[in-house]
Amino acid sequence: MMERVRVAIVGGYGGMGQIFVRLFKSEGCEVVIAGPTEAKGIKAGKELGVEYSRDNVKAATGADVVVVTVPIDVTFAVITEVAPHVKSGGMIMDLTSVKEAPCRLMAEKSGSDVEVVGTHPIFGPRVVDIEGQVLVLTPVRGAKWVAWLRGILEKHKARVIESTAEEHDMVMAVVQGLTHFTYISVAETLREIGFDVKRSRQFASPVYDLMLDMIGRIVGQDPRLYAEIQMNNPHVLDVHKVYLETAGRLSETVKAKDERRFVEEMISAARHFDDVERAMGRSDKAISSLVSELKALKESVGRELLLQHIYSGTKHYGVVVSVTADEVVLEDKGKKSTLKLSNLRILGAKELAAFKKEKFGVVSRDYSVVLNEEADENFIRELLREHDPNVDSVAVADVFRSDRLGAGKKSVLFKVQMINEDVKRTQARLAEFFKRIGGVLR
User: Fold this and answer.
1) CB atoms near residue 35 (< 10 Å)
2) What's the longest Cα–Cα distance across the chain?
3) Is residue 47 assigned to a domain?
4) So what's the pLDDT on residue 60?
5) DSSP strand E in 333-427: where?
6) How many domains does the chain contain in total?
């Protein structure tokens, strides 16, 4: 059995670093974070419950695994600083979005018996956890720690892709380099022509709305990070060159009103695209999900709901007062909250019940009910649990028979645990339930 693993995360007080701090801590690792910004480091260390060191080398020395997660423009300096101090038999890894140069430098600067693996999380620091997220591993040297890392990632249900550093950078020149460049170019074009984006949404189909959201998602994030992605991948400019040539050619086709050539190019692009039907289906599914969620919210006006922020995980509870295309208003004990729909998801009945139980606590009430002898009290117990969302649990405490109850009758004592919110109303609903099944409360 492997001894407790010590992990040093250089840059662990940043957004991405904190995701990996929590990940490794959840696996029982001893984690230390490092970096020069002392105020951030001390604050994050306290919040995350880990040690903080201002000295990168001190943190790396003696660690089994050293993780470098710093901006690209300082990544190479940090690797040069800490790699020589990674202990024999340990591992160094980075979390940058380019892989060839960092992987080469980690291998050059660390000992020959130190394992080296490039790691690229294909997501931003806003995610709550890594389940369903893609992480690319580009192993350079060693196997033991790479298997250990892959095991942790897969245990937490991440989608792990293994690649070479060269293949990674070539693919990312399109996956990130081309797509980000295109989205930013569109956003800048809209600015240049003075286009009213907000007004245009009123004219738009769901597809256009979704496209604007994707553009906004990119341009609304850290511009320095996106500049680094464009400027540090060695293959990006080659892709840009072809893209600009293609866009220019297509524009000339439109200018010449050459419909035949335009159609040919579009058909040719569709043939190369891989699976157009799959793309249609997935985009239809995304659009349907957006529309159905808005519909569900509008149908919930006057009812209580539990909503969760998709990034922070914060839960918002209350009765739905009103819903627009962009916002929902919740009211809880007279306090109203206006929330943006784009950042929320609706939680289910079980999650709502668990939240209310924690928020309000529970109380116990006994119900003695006279029933026909043929009645199945255990089936009624199950019905009770499903009948009212404020009922937490039901137990059959006693079944009593007596001539005083009348022929063919029995008295069943149900012990009901209910959420301690508007108990009188819950009791009234349960009394009505027993009446409707032919029971008589004693």
Assistant:
1) 24
2) 99
3) yes
4) 96
5) 335-340, 344-346, 362-372, 391-400, 409-419
6) 4
